[in-house]
Amino acid sequence: MHELAIAEAIIALVEDATPGQHVVTVTVEIGALSGVSREALQFALPFAAEGTAGEKAVFDLIEVGGRAACQECGTDFPVKSLYGLCACGSPRLTIIAGQDLVVRSIEVEEVVEHV
Amino acid sequence: MCESCGCGDAEWTVHTPHYHMHAGGMVHRHDHDKARAIGIIDVGAKILAANDAIAVRNRAWLSARGIVALNLMSAPGAGKTTLLERTLREFRSTSPIVVIEGDQATDNDAMRIRAAGGRSVQINTGKGCHLDAAMVEHGLAEANPPNGALLMIENVGNLVCPSLFDLGEGGRIALLSVTEGDDKPLKYPHMFAGADLLLLTKIDLLPYVEFDVGKAIDAALQVNPRISELRVSAKTGEGMQSWFDWLGRKQIGRSVDRPV
């Protein structure tokens, strides 16, 4: 359940980025190889958001697929785990996508004076 | 100013008739029926950036003092504290050994370390299932390890969560006891993918359990081709010398094998 710690870190970022604003939607990118479960994070976020600027926000969690580059033949291809084999037979892979956890954007609502 | 409705002021540039781009990069979308505006803030921030920044600070602090810091991680009950107790009693360290103990509750482990003659600080994570860089920063301030010390950070027993949090350590050790099952590196790949050393523990129990050492090492290598491997029993002492030699090499090399 490190997802609760991840949720708290997301809320801290949201609070820093939106002083005094009403947060509508928070878009978060979850790498498929990051070790964070999207379902567990979705479950944890409302608890972490309680009493904060993100309390009423919708958390849009987008999964970013994993990609690896083969150190032997240089091709890159989608992967579902941290290890595996390239089509050329090599197990020497470098993960190039899918390990990051990023708060991409935050939608805030503001009352404006003009109509 | 919005060309369509004339709202806003001169510092806004018009994006499309109903979107305004602020100088600060904020987009204003507004709806003429509602006195509300939606702003989209482009954040693009790594969620663990705050932890990683503190880890960088810890690493610099340790490096400036020539302290070798090792992060010991495993499932609960793999034998981290027992390994440290025997290490404190028998390893002829060239420098003082200081232990930071991470557990959800109790200071039992810190007391065990002190009874074995070591200096230790206990961190209780409460609801937390792992140590993070800020906890270690506090632990360092409390433990105040002397220059050149060997710092052992015993993480919370957990094969999943601790692997995500950089503490500022100079090396990661994943312990796997032979009572756990030889396919654990494949089941918990993050832990073993990030480790410098696989330490197979409780090898005195091998005759009594169905644990295939070769299979476990192959599994770890599959996840992490660079991982080193040692086999020990902190109970009988078997293999402990190879562990002490590994520690000795770490101390001499003062090597930092995790990226700074």
Named at the architecture level, the CATH assignment of the domain at 3-65 and 98-109 in chain A is: 2-Layer Sandwich
Strand order of the largest sheet of chain B: 7-6-8-5-9-10-11
Largest sheet of chain A: 3 strands, mixed
By helix and strand content of chain B, what is the structural category? alpha/beta
What series of H and E elements makes up the topology of chain B? Answer: EEEEHEHEHEHEEHHEHEH
Number of helices of chain B: 8
Distance between the termini of chain B: 47 Å
Order of helices and strands of chain A: HEHEEEEE
Show unreliable segments of chain B: 13-26, 255-260
Q: Got a strand count of chain B?
A: 11
Name the average pLDDT of chain A.
91
Q: What percent of the residues of chain B sit in helical stretches (DSSP H or I)? A: 25-40%
The main sheet of chain A orders its strands as 2-1-6
Descriptive account of the structure:
The complex is a heterodimer of chains A (115) and B (260). With 115 residues, chain A is of the alpha+beta class. Chain A has helices spanning 3-17, 38-49; strands at residues 22-31, 58-64, 66-70, 76-79, 93-97, 101-111. Chain A has a domain at 3-65 and 98-109: hypothetical protein PF0899 fold (2-Layer Sandwich), CATH 3.30.2320.50. Chain A is built from 2 helices and 6 strands. Chain B has helices at 49-64, 80-90, 108-115, 133-143, 184-187, 189-193, 213-223, 240-253, and strands at residues 13-16, 19-21, 27-30, 36-46, 68-73, 97-103, 119-124, 150-154, 171-177, 197-201, 228-231. Chain B starts with 12 loop residues before the first strand and ends in a 7-residue tail after the last helix. Chain B has 260 residues and is an alpha/beta fold. Classes of the chains: A alpha+beta (115), B alpha/beta (260). At the A-B interface, helix 1 and strand 6 of A face strand 4, helix 1 and helix 6 of B.
